[in-house]
Amino acid sequence: MKWLCRIALFTVVASGLAMAVGQDQSSDGVPVHMVVTVETRHGSSMPDISRQDAMVRQGKDRLRTTDWVPLQGDRAGLQLFVVIDDALNTSLGSQLDDLRQFINAQPATTSVGVGYMRNGTVQVAQELTVDHTQAAKALRLPLGEPGINASPYVSLADLTKRWPETPVRREVLLITDGIDRLWDGGTDDPYLDEAIEQAQKAGIIVFSIYSPGVGHYSHNYWRTNWGQNYLSQLSEETGGESFYFMNGAPVSFLPYLDDLSQKLGRQYLLTFLAKPGKKAGMQKVKVQTEVPNVELVAADAIWVPAAQ
Q1: N or C: which end of the chain has fewer CB within 10 A?
Q2: Measured CA distances, 143 to 76, 85, 147, 215, 249 (Å)
Q3: How many of the other CB atoms lie within 10 Å of CB of 2?
Q4: Are 205 and 171 spatial neighbours (Cβ–Cβ below 8 Å)?
């Protein structure tokens, strides 16, 4: 895959937003970086949030936070992939103008790519570019063929593995019915678990919008319910959010996309000292704050190098 490099104008000084700087390990732990979204309760104004306001726990231990940087101005660089399931109903066409409007409204510091999921991969229709008009033109109707994309989670994991590391944020807007046709439904979907772990390890935040698919499964309430549950789990555990309207197609994507734009503008780069294990691996963490009417949203696990 070819990738554009124009976003380099907006890079931050770090080896990667989700990767630990193992060589700087101290007695307190290993410094790791995580993108955090600040959300306020409905009607509440956005307060000033300082480093001391961000609390991180790893198990029962409170970790020391060392940096809290607003991802704005010269630190606002973002790579955003809009990924659409090719097995969706072609009624998605009524939402394409909303998506074009969303893409064109992104700031100049955001590069946008467009891809379509099918056959366990993401076919890139437009590589990451700061030319938002060009990215918006890459949107098309999904093919609407049953079974053309058996698992959106296999496709997402494929994109994650092929996405080069970068010192700017990497985030995905995933539009799919969430149904995994490689799994029989219920808990512990291994393809979903793999997609979540790969995204967490890479520091990629996944936002998702439910849209109905085609074929028998798309009319099955049980399958549809599990598809939405999977999308909610995927977004929640990677630090994003899942949007859906009951079990049907929303009238408009605009309320979701407006909310997403606000979230992208309220993100911070948090650095804290994580406790390493004997082996490198994922560690569960929880980011919180005691500031009234404010919630910090972040991935619930991060990759931590082994103890040295």
Answers
A1: C
A2: 34, 9, 11, 12, 17
A3: 6
A4: yes
Reading the block at residue 168, the tokens are 């700017």
Q: Which residues pair with 273 in a beta bridge?
A: 31
193 beta partners: none
Among residues 230, 203, 190, 201, the alpha carbon closest in space to that of 85 is found at 230
The upper half-sphere exposure of residue 156, i.e. CA atoms within 13 Å in the direction of its Cβ, equals: 37
| Closest among 52, 18, 76 to 202, alpha carbons compared | 18
Give the model confidence (pLDDT) of 135-173 as tens digits.
999 999 999 988 788 899 999 999 999 999 999 999 999
Cα radius of gyration rounded to whole Å, the chain: 19
* Dihedral of the alpha carbons of 158, 162, 163, 165, in degrees to the nearest 10: 130
Do 67 and 52 meet the contact criterion of CB atoms below 8 Å apart?
Answer: no
β-pair type (301-304, 281-284): antiparallel
